[in-house]
């Protein structure tokens, strides 16, 4: 894809938001910043699409505090292209749920804290139930 320099620069700083559902128990959910080595990187404030999300990610992290085993993460696809390629992120922002390193759902609903919280909680519960069924089988 051949893009004009300005468009390419905007794409390079675009953010793909990723929801990670982890197994390790945590004292509370928080917004975590990851690197290519650990899966993602920081948001770039120059991207208008992601900037328009405002504090959505931080607000979601606060609301999810106390929800054991759930982490909220983000990846900058301009910096961590291999990560975005690995998890099939090609448009921004993208909201996904991962459980034990596997994608279990992609969010396409309203971009508000309550909707995202419900989605993440529901998907985490489904993934946990599926894991228990596998163990008991």
From TrEMBL:
GO biological process, one term: pteridine-containing compound metabolic process
A GO cellular-component term linked to this record: endoplasmic reticulum
Keywords: Signal
A family per Pfam: Thioredoxin
Pterin-binding domain span: 24-137
Stretch forming the signal peptide: 1-29
Family classification: Belongs to the protein disulfide isomerase family.
Protein name, per record: Pterin-binding domain-containing protein
Lineage of origin: Eukaryota, Viridiplantae, Streptophyta, Embryophyta, Tracheophyta
